[in-house]
Design a protein that fits this description.
The complex is a heterodimer of chains A (320) and B (526). Chain A is built from 14 helices and 11 strands. Chain A is α/β, with parallel strands linked by helices and 320 residues long. In chain A, the strands form 4 sheets. In chain A, strands 2-5-8-1-9 form a 5-stranded parallel beta sheet. In chain A, helix 1 crosses helix 2. Chain A starts with a helix and ends with a helix. Classes of the chains: A alpha/beta (320), B mainly alpha (526). At the A-B interface, helix 9, helix 11, helix 13 and helix 14 of A face helix 13, helix 14, helix 15 and helix 16 of B.
Chain lengths: 320, 526
C-alpha cells in the first residue's frame, strides 16, 4: 500500500464521523506519520475525543482515553505493581499509556508530576516504573488537549514542555454544513464511532513512516526552513517581539512535517508551500512572545505568518 | 551619568578647568607685562607667587563646592571669602617680599600690589569660570542614575536647567576664547614691539593655546553629552577615554614643542616653589658674624639748622595755607581707618558668631576630619595611580584592540567569501534549471500584467493559484504549469527531456492564452 492510499483510507474513515475539518485530519496524520504527538488547544465539545478515537480505530490500533484531574497520579498513567495474593507475587498492571493511541484530555488539569510522566513517555517511547523501563507499543501516538487560557486549578504546560509536541492544532467550531451533518447523523442505539472500522494495519504504519523519511527536501528548501527558524531567533536576540526563538527540535519538526505533508499529497519531494503550510502548527507553541507584545495583541499565529511573508522563496528570489 | 562620575566632575574635572586656564592666562599676562612692557618699572614679585595663585584657585574651587553643597549662593559669603583670601595673600606677600624681615614696612610695595592684583584677577576669573561649570553640575545632579527613556523624560522635565547649563557652557567658551584672543594679541604686541620673547613666555603661550583648545574641546564634549542625554543615551566610556587621551596628548605635544625654548627662567610652579624655598632657607639661616657691620649712625640724619631750600619742604609749605582742613583730615583719617578696619573685622568674623557655626564647631571632631582628609588623599592617590596604570596599559590595550579589529575584519571577509561561494554554488545549481526558471518568470510577468502582483515570499504553486483565481477559465492549465515547474525545481532529479518539453509547451500555450485574454479585456474596456 502506498502512502497516499493509506492516507486516503484512514482519512476517509475518520471523515465518516469527524466532519468538515479535513485540514485538521491532515495535520494530525502528518504528526502520526512523523512519529510525533499532537496538542489540541480548543474549547470543549468540538470533537477532540471523536477525532482521537476515529484515528485509533481507523489505523487498527488500540485506543485509550485518560481524563486528567488534579488528583491523577503518575502511577494512574504508567501503571502500578499489585500484589497477587494467590501467586504471592507482584504483578504489573499496565496503565493507559500502554496503547497505540492515547487521548489525554485536559492535560493542564494534571499536576506537573503527572505531566512529566506523560512527557517522558512521549519523548523516550518507554516508561520507567519501579526502576524498570518498559517500552511503549509501536506506534505510540498521543493526542493531548488543553483548554485555551488559564483557569483556576490548572497547571498550564510550560513552554519548554510544549516544545515536545510535534505540532499544535486548533479544531475550532465546525462549518455550518458540517455541524448540520453532525446533528442530523443517524444515531439510533449505536454510537457513530462504533461504525468506524480499521482500514489499515498498524504494522503498515511503520513502513509508511519510513517512506516519509525518504521524501526529498531540496537544499534550497532546507535553507528556507533554517532562514525561517533563524528569523525567530533574531527576533529574540534583538530584544524584539519574542522572548524565545525556535529550538533545533523545532527546525527538525518542521523539516519532517514538510516531508510528511508532501507524502500525504502524493509527492516524493517537498515544495515551499508544504513548509509554509506546516510552519504555523509546528512553530506555534515553540516560540514565546514577550508579555509586552502579548498585551498589544500579537499572537504566535500572526507572528509566524508575518515571518513567512517576509522570507523569500528560492530560487525565484534570485531570479526576480 | 552615575554618582561617581558626577563627583569626579564636581571635585576634580571642573575645579581643574576653572583653575588651570585662568592661571595659565594670568601667568602669561604677568610674564609679558613685566618682562616685555613694564620692564622699566622693575616690578619684582614676591617669591612663590605662582604657588599662592594656585592655592587661591584651589581655595575658590573648594569654597564654591562647599557653598554649592549648602545650596548657598549669597554674594556676601563670596565677598567675605574674597576679602579673607586677599588678606591672607597680602600677609604672605608681605612676609615673602623680604621688606618686613629687613626691618622695613612698606605696606603698598609695588611688587606686593602687583601680586595682589594677580590674586584678585585670578579669584574673579576662576569664580566666573567655575560658576558656569557649576550650572552643569546642578543639571547633572537632577539626572544622575537615570537611563534610557527615564533619562530622556528627565531631561525634558528639567529642560530649564538643561538650557541654563548649555547657556553657561556657551559663556564658558566665550571666556576661554577671550583668554586666547588676549594672549594672542599680547604676544603679537610683544613681537611688534621688538621685545625679546623669553623661553618662559613661549612655553606659556603654547601651553595656554593648547590648554585653551583642550578646554574648548572639553566644553564642546559636555554640550554634546547633554544632547545625547536628551535622546536617552550616554556617551560610551571608550569615547570619553579617547577624548581625554587626545587632550592630554595635545598638551604634551605643545610642551614638547616648547621645550627647546626653555632656558633658565624660573617656570611655574617649579620655579616659583624653588624661589620660595630659597627665600625660606635664607630666612632661616642665621647671618654669620662677618656679615654684621657697624651701623651707620650718620645715616638718616640731616642738619636742619642750616638754611634749607624751601623746595625740600615745598609740599609741606604748600599744605600750610590749607592747614585747617588738612589737619582735620589728618586727624580724622586714623579714626576712619580704625572704624573701617573694625567693620571689616566684624564682617569677617560674623559667621563665627552664628549659632549654626558654633553648633557645627561643637560637632566637629578633629579625628573624623583628619580621617576624611586621609581618605580623600588616599582616594586621590588611588585615582592618580589608576590613571597612570591605565596610561601604562594604553599601548597594550591599543595593540589588543587593533588585533581584535583585524581579526574581526578577517572573519567578516571570510564569512563574506563563504557566502559568495555558497551563492555561486547555488547559482550554478540553478543553472541547469535556468530555462525553466526563465519560463516561470515570463508567467509571473504575464500575471503581473493581468493584475496579480508577485511577492518573493510566494511559492510557485501559490502564485499559480492566485493567478488561476484571477483567470478561472484557465486555472487548471496554470496550476498544471506550476506543478510541473515545482517538480522540475524541487524534486532533486536532473531535468528530464520529456518533462521539460511538456513544461515548455504548456507554458507557451498558457502565455498565448493569457495574452489573448488580456487583449480581449483591453478591447472590451475600450
Amino acid at each position: 500500500m502506498t502512502t497516499v492510499e493509506w492516507v486516503e483510507r484512514v482519512a476517509g474513515s475518520v471523515r465518516s464521523t469527524f466532519f468538515g475539518k479535513d485540514d485538521v485530519i491532515e495535520k494530525v496524520l502528518v504528526a502520526l506519520l512523523c512519529r510525533g504527538h499532537v496538542l489540541i488547544e480548543d474549547v470543549p465539545g468540538v470533537g477532540k475525543t471523536v477525532l482521537g478515537r476515529a484515528i485509533a480505530m481507523s489505523i487498527g490500533g488500540d485506543f485509550k482515553q485518560l481524563q486528567c484531574t488534579p488528583d491523577l497520579l503518575p502511577a494512574d498513567v504508567l501503571g502500578v505493581s499489585v500484589f497477587n495474593a494467590q501467586a504471592q507475587t507482584f504483578e504489573f498492571r499496565e496503565g493507559p499509556v500502554m496503547t497505540n493511541v492515547l487521548l489525554v484530555d485536559e492535560i493542564n488539569r494534571a499536576t506537573p508530576r503527572t505531566q512529566s510522566a506523560l512527557l517522558e513517555a512521549m519523548a523516550e517511547g518507554q516508561v520507567s516504573v519501579e526502576g524498570k523501563s518498559r517500552p511503549l507499543p509501536d506506534p505510540f501516538f498521543l493526542i493531548a488537549t488543553e483548554s485555551p487560557g488559564s483557569a483556576e486549578g490548572t497547571f498550564p504546560l510550560p513552554e519548554v514542555q510544549k516544545d515536545r509536541f510535534f505540532l499544535t492544532v486548533s479544531i475550532g467550531y465546525p462549518a455550518r454544513d458540517a455541524e448540520r451533518a453532525v446533528m442530523q447523523m443517524p444515531r439510533g442505539q449505536e454510537h457513530p464511532l462504533r461504525k468506524v472500522v480499521a482500514v489499515a494495519d498498524v504494522s503498515a504504519l511503520s513502513a509508511i513512516q519510513q517512506n516519509v523519511l525518504a521524501v526529498h527536501v531540496d537544499d534550497s528548501l532546507s535553507g528556507y526552513i533554517l532562514a525561517l527558524i533563524n528569523a525567530t531567533r533574531s527576533e529574540a536576540r534583538r530584544d524584539g517581539r519574542l522572548a524565545l526563538g525556535v529550538s533545533p527540535r523545532g527546525s527538525l519538526a518542521l523539516y519532517k512535517a514538510s516531508q510528511a505533508l508532501a507524502a500525504l499529497r502524493g509527492r516524493d519531494y517537498v515544495v515551499p508551500e508544504d513548509i509554509q503550510e506546516m510552519a504555523v502548527p509546528v512553530l506555534l507553541k515553540r516560540l514565546i512572545i514577550t508579555s509586552e507584545q502579548q498585551a498589544k495583541g500579537l499572537t504566535e499565529v500572526a507572528l509566524v505568518n508575518e515571518l513567512v511573508d517576509a522570507l523569500e522563496v528560492p530560487p525565484l528570489k534570485d531570479a526576480v | 551619568m552615575d554618582e561617581q562620575r558626577l563627583q569626579f566632575y564636581r571635585t576634580v574635572a571642573h575645579p581643574t578647568l576653572a583653575v588651570l586656564l585662568p592661571l595659565a592666562f594670568l601667568l602669561l599676562l604677568d610674564q609679558i607685562l613685566r618682562g616685555a612692557f613694564l620692564g622699566t618699572l622693575q616690578v619684582t614679585v614676591p617669591p612663590g607667587l605662582g604657588v599662592v595663585l594656585i592655592a587661591v584657585g584651589v581655595s575658590e574651587a573648594a569654597v564654591a563646592g562647599a557653598l554649592g553643597r549648602e545650596r548657598s549662593s549669597r554674594f556676601v559669603l563670596r565677598l567675605r571669602e574674597l576679602l579673607l583670601v586677599m588678606i591672607v595673600a597680602y600677609a604672605i606677600f608681605m612676609l615673602t617680599s623680604g621688606e618686613f624681615f629687613a626691618g622695613r614696612f612698606v605696606p603698598a610695595a609695588r611688587g606686593v600690589r602687583w601680586a595682589l592684583t594677580m590674586v584678585l584677577l585670578l579669584w574673579i576669573l576662576t569664580a566666573s569660570l567655575h560658576g558656569t561649570l557649576r550650572a552643569r553640575e546642578a543639571f547633572l545632579e537632577l539626572i544622575v542614575g537615570r537611563e534610557g527613556a527615564d533619562l530622556r523624560i528627565a531631561v525634558r522635565d528639567y529642560s530649564t536647567e538643561a538650557g541654563d547649563s548649555v547657556a553657561r557652557m556657551g559663556r564658558a567658551k566665550r571666556y576661554v576664547i577671550t583668554f586666547q584672543a588676549l594672549a594672542i594679541i599680547l604676544t603679537t604686541a610683544v613681537l611688534l614691539a621688538g621685545a625679546e620673547l623669553s623661553g618662559a613666555i613661549v612655553v606659556l603661550v603654547l601651553a595656554h593655546l593648547a590648554l585653551g583648545a583642550c578646554v574648548l574641546a572639553v566644553i564642546d564634549g559636555y554640550v554634546e553629552e547633554q544632547q545625547y542625554f536628551g535622546e536617552g543615551l550616554a556617551l560610551s566610556a571608550r569615547l570619553r577615554r579617547r577624548r581625554i587621551g587626545t587632550a592630554v596628548l595635545l598638551v604634551a605635544l605643545a610642551l614638547l614643542l616648547a621645550w627647546p625654548f626653555v632656558r633658565a627662567d624660573p617656570l611655574l610652579p617649579g620655579g616659583s616653589l624653588t624661589s620660595l624655598l630659597s627665600w625660606l632657607s635664607d630666612l632661616l639661616t642665621p647671618p654669620t658674624p662677618t656679615q654684621l657691620r657697624a651701623p651707620d649712625f650718620a645715616a638718616g640724619t640731616q642738619d636742619f639748622s642750616s638754611g634749607e631750600s624751601p623746595g625740600e619742604h615745598e609740599a609741606i609749605d604748600q599744605l600750610a595755607p590749607l592747614g585747617g582742613f588738612a589737619s582735620f583730615m589728618q586727624a580724622l583719617l586714623p579714626w576712619l581707618g580704625g572704624v573701617l578696619g573694625l567693620a571689616l573685622v566684624a564682617f569677617l568674623v560674623r559667621p563665627l558668631l552664628t549659632r549654626d557655626l558654633r553648633a557645627r564647631l561643637r560637632e566637629l571632631r578633629p579625628g573624623d576630619a583628619a580621617r576624611k582628609v586621609i581618605v580623600a588623599l588616599r582616594q586621590l592617590f588611588g585615582s592618580l595611580l589608576a590613571i597612570l596604570s591605565r596610561l601604562g596599559r594604553a599601548p597594550a590595550d591599543a595593540g589588543r584592540r587593533i588585533a581584535r579589529t583585524v581579526a574581526e575584519r578577517v572573519e567578516r571577509q571570510r564569512r563574506a567569501a563563504h557566502q559568495r561561494r555558497a551563492h555561486a554554488v547555488e547559482v550554478a545549481r540553478w543553472r541547469e534549471h535556468a530555462e525553466a526558471i526563465k519560463g516561470y518568470l515570463r508567467l509571473i510577468r504575464a500575471g503581473e500584467r493581468a493584475g496579480v502582483r508577485f511577492r518573493p515570499s510566494l511559492g510557485p504553486l501559490q502564485y499559480a493559484g492566485m493567478l488561476g483565481a484571477r483567470v478561472p477559465q484557465h486555472s487548471a492549465e496554470i496550476l498544471a504549469v506550476g506543478s510541473l515547474f515545482e517538480g522540475m525545481i524541487y524534486s532533486g532529479r536532473p531535468p528530464q527531456a520529456e518533462q521539460s518539453q511538456a513544461y515548455d509547451r504548456q507554458l507557451r500555450e498558457l502565455l498565448a492564452v493569457l495574452r489573448t485574454a488580456r487583449a480581449a479585456g483591453r478591447e472590451e474596456s475600450t
